[in-house]
Every structure is written in structure tokens, then in C-alpha cells.
Amino acid sequence: MNNQKLNNYLDAYGKANSPEAGPALLNSIMDIPYENDQDEKLSWDPKSIFIFLMPRISALTAFCLMGIYMGSAGSSALAEDEAAEIDYKITFDPNSKIFISDNLNTLLDIEGLIFVEEKIK
Amino acid sequence: MILSIGKGDQTAYCTLVKRHLSINLGFATKLLGNTADAEEVMQEAFTRVWKYSNLWDTSRNAKFTTWFYRVVTNLCHDVSRKRKPQAKIEVLEAMASDEVAADNIIAVKQRSQQVKDGLNEIPHRQRTAIILCYFQGLSNREAAEVMEVSLSAVESYLVRGRRNLAEVLEEDKNNLLKDIG
Predict the structure, then answer these.
(1) The domain that contains B134 carries what CATH number?
(2) Contact B73/B147 with Cβ under 8 angstroms?
(3) Residues B69 and B113 in one domain
(4) Which of A1, A16, A36 shows the shortest C-beta gap to B47?
């Protein structure tokens, strides 16, 4: 196929694919400024940087403090687990003269169990 | 004008849309071979113009037309990558019509469809170079700026693209003659 013939084919394609923008498309494109905000331009003056960074740093600090606080709460939870293990080791010697409450159900409290263990020792 | 738009001037935006919409809609339609996809691309392209015009860097001395062609090209490329391959539309049955006028219309449609299929078969960059230079009337240098390649690369894309397209069309024509004969 020579160049002239190829150009004829391309012209046919160009004619068939040169649409005019319809009113619906034009309206939707014209509405873009009403539907979208422009991106904020970053400026590098100290005041803008301070305003930009301050809330972020505050939030980060708050999260760090909260993490430390939650971390300490986690260690007390570990202590409870360790206390629960003690539960298995407790043996009540029927011959000993240590007085244990008549109602053993009251010993469900973990601190009570530790107290009893200390008494046994 | 782009700086005015960056400051939120909607009148400048409307003027810009009127100036660039038709040309770029035609460009996107030829690149994608599909008006509906081209319209979506234009919406997205003008949304980007509005959103990012305040970030326009005047020190780069870039032309808006070039930048906008680049945005449209990239968006079209994204669309064509995501799109499933289209089935070829057969219009051969209609060729049997006796009326000359109808024959001409059908012939134009047939050619257009063949070119569309042919353009889909050649690589994206060759297709873009042909459409920018042949249909949009850009010089090779301007096309090189839009495509962000060297001038010699664009010339190479044009030569190879036209050769590949001619081969595809020739092959189609031979197949058509075989079908008829």
C-alpha cells in the first residue's frame, strides 16, 4: 500500500472520529470548578510550616503517650496471667492448722489466692 | 490563562475549555477509537487542569497545549491498557448494496473500521505519533515534546508506524478480496 492510499484510509478514519463535544459533556466539564477544590499550594515560609506541622506533631505525641500508657496496662495484665499460674501450684494441706474460709468459692479473687498461698508458706 | 485558573478564575477556565475541548476530544477519540471513553478521558483531564493549575510552574516555560496533550495521551494509554480487546465489527454484509452513495458511505466506514483495527494492532507509541502528527497537525518536534522522547525517536515511530499500519491494512484488504472472490 502506497502513501497516498494510506493517507486516504487515514482521512476516512479522521472523518469518522472527529466528534463535536455534546452539551452534556460540555456542561459536566464546566461544572468541574463547582464540584472540585483546587489543590492547596504548599508554601515554605516558617509560619505555614509551623501551622502545617504543629497539629501533626501534637497528634503524634498524644499517640506516643497513649501507647506508653497502654503498654503499662499490658504489663499488669501479664501479672494477672502469672497469678493465674500460681493457682495451679496452690496445695491445701488438710493437716495444717491454717484456717481457710469455710466457703472456698470466695477464694476466686486472685488476690485472695495469693494471700492464702502466703499463709500456707 | 493557566495562572488565572490557578487563582480560581472560572471565566478563564471556561475560555480554556472552549479552546481545547474539541481538539483534544478528537485526539482522544482517534487514539481510543471510542467516543464514550474519550469523553471520560476529557472529563478527567479537565478535572486535573482545575485541581493542579495552581501548581503550574512558570519557570519551566512549558506550553499548556503540550502539557495537556501529554495528560490526555497518558490517560488514553491508561484506558486502553485497562480495556478488554474489542471484537472486530464486520460490515462486509452491507457491501452488497446497489446504491452508489450508500456504497461510498459504507466504503468510508469500512476504511475507518480497518484503520481503527490497524491502529489497535500497532504499538501505542507508533499510534500516538501518527495521530499527533497526521491528525492533530503537530510538528515532529512538538510531538516529541508531548511524548517526552527525542525528535529522532518520533521520526522512527512515524516511519515504523505507517509501515506497520500499511501492512496491516494490506493484509486486511487481501483477506477481504479472498472472502469476496
Answers:
(1) 1.10.10.10
(2) yes
(3) no
(4) A36
| Chain B residues within 8 A of A28 when measuring between CB atoms | 43
pLDDT single digits (tens) B98-125: 555 666 677 777 778 888 888 888 888 9
Give the range of the structural domain holding residue B167, as residue numbers without chain letter: 91-181
- Dmax (CA) for chain A in angstroms is 117
Q: How many domains does chain B have?
A: 2
CATH number for B21 = 1.10.1740.10
**CA B37 – CA B31 distance, rounded (Å):** 10
Place of cell 470548578: A33
- The ipTM value here is 0.72
Residues of A in contact with B26 (CB under 8 A): 17-19
Cβ separation of A38 and B10 shorter than 8 Å? Answer: no
Residues B12 and B81 both lie in one domain: yes
Contact B130 A10 (CB under 8 A): yes
Which residue is listed with cell 496471667?
A81
pLDDT tens for B133-154 read: 988 888 999 999 989 999 999 9
